[in-house]
C-alpha cells in the first residue's frame, strides 16, 4: 500500500477505513451490474471467506431486497454500505446512488456533495458519453477523486490507447492504467495488473467467479507465457512498454487532487476486474474528507457529531406521509438515540430511529461514523442543506441549489383538488425535486425545474403518490429570481410589481418574468433590491 497523502491528519481507525463514493456513468454502461457485484463481493468475501456459488449470489441480493421489504422503504435506491476486506484490513464502503434517469436533476449534483470520490464507469465500445461528461464536470467542480472502470471488455471494444486518449482529451484529466487488457471481445483473456504485477484471467464459464490471479515477477517472467498465447503476449508486452513510455505513472496525490484517474479494464457482468477496482478504492481512494462549513470547516476526526442533509425523499412508503432525510456524517461517532441540534431551527432533535443502509445485515445498526450515510425518518423538519450538530451553531455549505431553467404552470385535473395539489407540490419542493412558486395573482402553481424530464417525473409521482392527475402547461413566465434587500425596499418593489410576484415553499419572495429587460429594469430602478437566480440552501 502506498503512503497516505502527507497532508492528511491521522484519522481514528473506524473513520480511516471508510470509503464513501458514488458511481457516475451514462445509462447502460453497467452501473447497476457493477453495484450488484460490489454487494456480492462486499457480503460474500466477508461472510464466507470465499466466493459464493451462483445460487448464493442470488441470495445476497434478495436478502438486501428483503431488508427493503422489512423496512418498507427502498433503500437500494439511495445508499448502501458493505464491507470489503483487503490484505487484512476491513474497509467499510458507502455507495451513494446517483439517480438513474438520463435527465439531469439537482439531486444528482447534491448526491455528489455527500461523497469523497466517484467511480466513473464507461462502456469500452462507446467511450465517454454525454451523461458521463456532465457528471464528470460536477465532480471536477469539487476536485473529487475519480477512479475509472472501463466495462464490457468481453465485447468488441475500442483500442485501449484510444479509450485512454479520449478520456484525457474530453475530460482533461491524466489517465494512468492500473491494469492492461489482454485481447478483446471474444478473445478477451483478462488483464495484467500493472500495480501488483499480477495476471488476472477471466473465467467465462462462471460469471460470479473471481478471476484466477497469478503472481508474476514483472513482464519478463517466463510464467506469463504459460498462461497467455504468444500472439497476445507479444501484443501485451509491446503495448505496456508503450503505455509506460507515453502515459503518466500512478501518483496517489494526483488522484486525491482530482487531476489523475487510474483506469481498470473489466467486465462487470463476468465479475471481472471488479475486485481489483475495489482494492483500488480501498488502497488509494480517499478517507472521509473535511466538510466546508460556516463559520469553520468540519474535520472528520473531531469527536463531536456533525452531519448535513443532502437529500430528502418523501413517500418512500406510500402508506405513510413520512420522509427520509439522508445525512452525511461529517465528523464524530453517532450512536442511536443521540440528541442533536437542528441548527436552522436551533431545536434539539432526538434521533431515535436512524436507518443505516447495511447491505449484509438485516438488523438496524446502532452507530455511525464520519463518512457514513444515515437515513433519518421525519415529518418534514429536515430539509436539504440542514446541519445537525451536538450543539455548535455551524452550517455546512456548498450544497448547491440550482436556478430553475424551465417554468410551467401546474394544474390539478380536478379544480376542486387544488389544495391537494398544493400539498403535493410543496412536498416535492421540500424534497428538492422542483421549485414551486405560488403567484400572488391568478390560480395554479408555477413549477421550475432544471431538466424537462423532471416535469414528467413529477406528474407521474403526483398521480402515483397522491392519486391526483395533473397537467403541466406553458407558463407566461420563463425566469425566476429570488428577491432580497432591506424590508421597506422589498415591500415597495412588491407593491409596484404585483403581477410578477410569487412566493416559494419557504414563503420567500420570487420575481417571475419572461424578459431580461425586466430584470435589467429592476437593477436600474431598485438599486437596493437584489435579484438572484439561485437561493442558498439553508
Ligand atoms: P446501467 O444502466 O448503467 O445501470 O447498466 P446495467 O448495469 O443495467 O447494464 C446495461 C446492460 O449492459 C445490461 O443488459 C447488462 O447486462 C449489460 N452489461 C453490464 N455489464 C456488462 C459486461 O461487462 N459485458 C456485457 N457484455 N454486458 C454487460
Automatic annotation (TrEMBL):
GO biological process entries: regulation of translational termination
Chief site of localization: cytoplasm
Keyword Transmembrane carried by entry: no
One Pfam family it belongs to: EF-G_D2
CDD domains the UniProt entry points to: RF3 (cd04169), RF3_III (cd16259)
PROSITE patterns: G_TR_1, G_TR_2
KW Protein biosynthesis (keyword) present: yes
Domain spans labelled Tr-type G: 16-289
Keywords, in A-Z order: Cytoplasm, GTP-binding, Nucleotide-binding, Protein biosynthesis
Cross-referenced InterPro entries: EF-G-like_DII, EFG_III/V, G_TR_CS, P-loop_NTPase, PrfC, RF3_C, RF3_dom_3_sf, RF3_GTP-bd
GO molecular function: GTP binding; GTPase activity; guanosine tetraphosphate binding; translation release factor activity, codon nonspecific; translation release factor activity, codon specific
Protein name stated in the entry: Peptide chain release factor 3
Organism: Litoreibacter ponti
